Amino acid sequence: MSRYLVDKFLYTVDRDPDLVERYRAEPRGTVLWWEAERANSVLNCHGGEASTWLRFTDDEREALATHDHVALFALGAHPFLTLTLFIAMFERDHGPLEYQKAFGARLAHFSMPYPDIAT
Amino acid sequence: MATIAAVIASTHHPFYYRASTATGEDRPPFADEWVRKITAFRQTLTAARPDVLVMVGSDHFHQLWLDNMPQFLVGKAPFYDANWYNEEREFGLPKMLLKGQEDLSAHILRAGLDSGFDLAFSNELRIDHSVTCPIITLRPEADLPIVPIYTNIFAPPLPRPKRFVQLGQAIREIVESWPSHLRVAIVGTGHLSLELGGPRQFGPHGPDPEFDAKAVEWIATGDIERCLAEVTLDSLHSPGNATHGFMDFMLMMGVAGAGRKADHVDSLDLFHTMEAYFTWYPNGVPA
């Protein structure tokens, strides 16, 4: 059930330019802050309606805290979310498409069927 | 009753806007050919003289999220803001504002529900590149009112391929039953073989050229039967982990009709994915 929360982290960060920069510069601190302060907000509700049970597994928290996109793929994080956020953070450090191709190459040991992404 | 002026199906490559507007050293080597093909494709819509565009696409986790995911959603708003910060960031897409056609939205919702499709609706839909890319390629003036229809090709569990075909057939009948003198073009975008966030992404071609060739043939000839015989939710993983977007092409085959050959067929073998463009004229080729 926490695969949903991993996807929600990636989705939440990817749509916010300040969070993209914060996660790039300070991944572990951002993950811990987000899990404590943001993870359990529900829809458009006030804080009193927060979820009481959503949290990362240790593997998920570590994969997010270390920018480990290979581990996230293995855990079933939605690959579109991981890709688009990681392009936002790291493409700037590389030549055209260099980062995207390297991203794929690091996943070369995976074959079909890929890890389940259903939440 | 409304007239269906054209049925159009295409890919929606978000890099087209940047590639087509780039100059000098920034302009990729394939840009000129891509622009030529898009210009010819655009003419197929212009010649149809549409008044309204029904736009079938798929939200890419921009507005629709796993807390409340609709399978099929119809926009019903007077205006639609378009494109998101992360699309501007990655593709250089501009912010856009498109007019809505609320009467047709209401008609599609009422008739769609009565036809057995439990359509969701949104009065607050911000649309993304699946709708704006075909605007940029086919109607860059962005001057026609639209009805956006979003499908879920992204977040399992997905509807099965046959359901997409059935919805396309229903949309065709529903638009034709709209009590209006207006000319409606139905435009939908999907994918051929495509991999995103996986080991086969960003190759020199789409990840499965053999699938692409078969898919183009199915669409161009309206061979819904063979397409449905070969394509399942499970099989669509094989040509690439994002190939479920092909089901939006299948929806458009349903709109065009079984056995109906496309009047315009073109494709462009780009890196990453193959581009493909199809136009049908249900009421005859414009003079």
Automatic annotation (TrEMBL), chain A:
Top-level taxon of the source organism: Bacteria
From the Swiss-Prot or TrEMBL record, give the protein name: Uncharacterized protein
Which lineage do the record's taxonomy fields give for this organism? Answer: Bacteria, Bacillati, Actinomycetota, Actinomycetes, Micromonosporales
UniProtKB/TrEMBL annotation, chain B:
Q: Gene3D superfamilies from the xrefs?
A: LigB-like (3.40.830.10)
Record-linked Pfam families: LigB (PF02900)
- As recorded in UniProt, its EC number(s) are 1.13.11.8
Query: Which segments constitute the Extradiol ring-cleavage dioxygenase class III enzyme subunit B domain?
Result: 8-261
Q: Which UniProt keywords apply?
A: Dioxygenase, Oxidoreductase
> Which InterPro entries is this protein grouped with?
Xdiol_dOase_suB
Q: Which GO terms describe its molecular function?
A: ferrous iron binding; protocatechuate 4,5-dioxygenase activity
User: Kind of enzyme, top EC level?
Assistant: oxidoreductase
Tell me the superkingdom of the source.
Bacteria
Q: Does the keyword Transmembrane helix apply?
A: no
Q: What is this protein called?
A: Protocatechuate 4,5-dioxygenase beta chain
Organism this protein belongs to = Actinoplanes digitatis
